[in-house]
Amino acid sequence: MQLTRNVNRRIGRAMHDYAMLADGDQVLIAVSGGIDSLVLAWLLGDWRRKAPVHYELRAVHVDMEPGTDARGSTAGRVAEIVGAFGLDLHILPAIWRPDPQTLPSAASAHDLCFQCARSRRTQLFGYARQHGCNKIAFGHHQDDIIETFLLNLTSAGNISTMVPRQDLFSGRLALIRPLAYLDKGEIEQIGRDLGLEPVRSACPLSEKTRRLAIHQLAEQIYQQIPGAKEHIFAALGNVRQHYLLKQTGGRRP
């Protein structure tokens, strides 16, 4: 399958703008089973065949439902899909999982999701270090970046978001998001063109999170204000710091 010229150009621009891939990179692909991570796994494999640099790929899935002596059904299905791309899937049994018998209230679900995500990321960081990976690729896209901004704005009291590339541990590891310039609808279309079916998450809170509420809010904004998505995304790279609140310690009126 070939990407459209427009989509191909924006993926290439994101990779170039944030220097995501370099010759000799060892790239860990975080594959959850959602359509975004599946498309990312296919994309990085396909891109490697035409890229002017050589990099190695290692697809990794954190299994949130492992049995006592076997992988969970989600992990098994993800392995089949990724295997069709010519990639082996390395499955890590989750070191921490929420207890489905004690689901939290809506007010505390956000904290539980944060704890779960942090635990999975810690496992990925450890695996990357053990296997010499200097990049971790995530399937986050334009909508994720905007919604993270709105989530932090409304729930954390700060102006920030996830970035297309983030360097950690004094530059020893970089998080990259090659799909950063595409929106969710475009990624879903690529998935349909590839004949991919997302693997449903086993998370008992997948339809009850604060992020879902933010997604619905963002969709309302886009419907009511034409061009809002593009303008919000552009604004995240056009911050006028002199026009943000900054206390100077002077006398108040």
Topology:
Elements: H1 5-17, E1 26-30, H2 35-48, E2 56-63, H3 73-84, E3 89-93, H4 106-130, E4 135-137, H5 142-156, E5 165-168, E6 173-176, H6 184-194, H7 210-224, H8 228-235
Parallel strand pairs: 1-2, 1-4, 2-3, 4-6
Antiparallel strand pairs: 5-6
Helix pairs in contact: 2-6, 5-7
Summarize the structure.
The protein is of the alpha/beta class and 253 residues long. It has eight helices and six strands. Helices cover 45% and strands 11% of the residues.
Summarize the helix and strand pattern as letters. Answer: HEHEHEHEHEEHHH
**Whole-angstrom Rg:** 19 Å
Structural class: alpha/beta
Number of helices, where a helix is a run of at least 4 consecutive DSSP H or I residues? 8
The strand count comes to 6
Strand content range: 5-15%
**CATH secondary-structure class:** Alpha Beta
Q: What CATH architecture would you give?
A: 3-Layer(aba) Sandwich
Largest sheet: 6 strands, mixed
Examine the coordinates and then state which fold CATH places here, giving the name of the CATH topology: Rossmann fold
